[in-house]
Amino acid sequence: MSETEANATEAQATDANDLPEGRLDEPRLVIEAGPAARVAAIVGPVLQGLGFRLVRAKISGGSPPTLQIMAERPDGSFGIDECETASRAISPVLDVEDPITGAYNLEMSSPGIDRPLVRCSDFQRWAGHDIKVDMAVPVGGRKRFRGILVGAKGAEAGGQEAGGQEALLRLPDAPAGAPDTVALPIADIGEARLVMTDALIREALRRDKALREGAGIDEDDIDTADIGEVPLDDEGDDLTDEEAAEADDGGGVLRVPPKKKPVRGKQKTQPLLKPKGAAKPGKKSNAKRKSHAKETH
């Protein structure tokens, strides 16, 4: 991307800051399927009662699996204190409803910098930034898209109902002579998320600073966020530790001990497998002792 295009992108993103903050009751248009959908239906109302909005519920494989709940305030903020409040409220509800069979880890987190886009207002607010989209329903025979988010169409109705709202995406790989902008029905999107770029990091830092100043929060009291990917600089190299730490600032992740229907407790560490006959630390193996005995005779 040229410097002129980058400046135009940042200007467009800055204009998006002038949009009013999202509504607490704005519905998600990009939703889960299967067991994660059952979890979302359970925890969504609980979060809303606390003044938070559900962003995503996701079950990741593992032993035990991890149930990740992403949430935020309507203004996009969500720190460690909010994570703890939400986790305490959600846990007993999951105890009763039992949407997941067997043991699992509960992880409560903010959306992070490279966040998922799930509401119509998300596609408006983050206009001007690079996003990746996986469609649940193909558009023009294609399911995967990456480009610059132009905004959202059909947002005038406030995103009250699923259907009719479209995300507008400018494609850098559009064939010559073909339209370089595509309209993607938001309700048909399987997953959409921001791509980590320098412009996105700067924008996230600006927003976070504005939120902190508005709330009167001291920077020393801010916990680090889980941003999910390693940020890169203009040349595609990893940012320095100082730059990455600054990019992390402002969110939070809270990991609750493993639960079974749910039961709290520490996750057991799997022992390392050792070759047959291997010696324990500080001791010689039988084979070594026998060899030593032969040498002394």
UniProtKB/TrEMBL annotation:
Coiled coil ranges: none
Region listing for Disordered, in residue ranges: 1-22, 220-297
Biased composition (Basic residues): 257-267, 281-297
Predominant location category: cytoplasm
Location within or outside the cell: Cytoplasm
One Gene Ontology cellular component: cytosol
GO biological process: ribosomal small subunit assembly; translation
Low complexity bias (residue ranges): 1-17, 271-280
UniProt biased composition (Acidic residues): 220-249
Domain Ribosome maturation factor RimP N-terminal: from-to ranges: 42-114
Superkingdom of the source species: Bacteria
Keywords tagged on the record: Cytoplasm, Ribosome biogenesis
Family of this protein: Belongs to the RimP family.
Name the record gives this protein: Ribosome maturation factor RimP
Gene source species: Ancylobacter dichloromethanicus
Gene: rimP
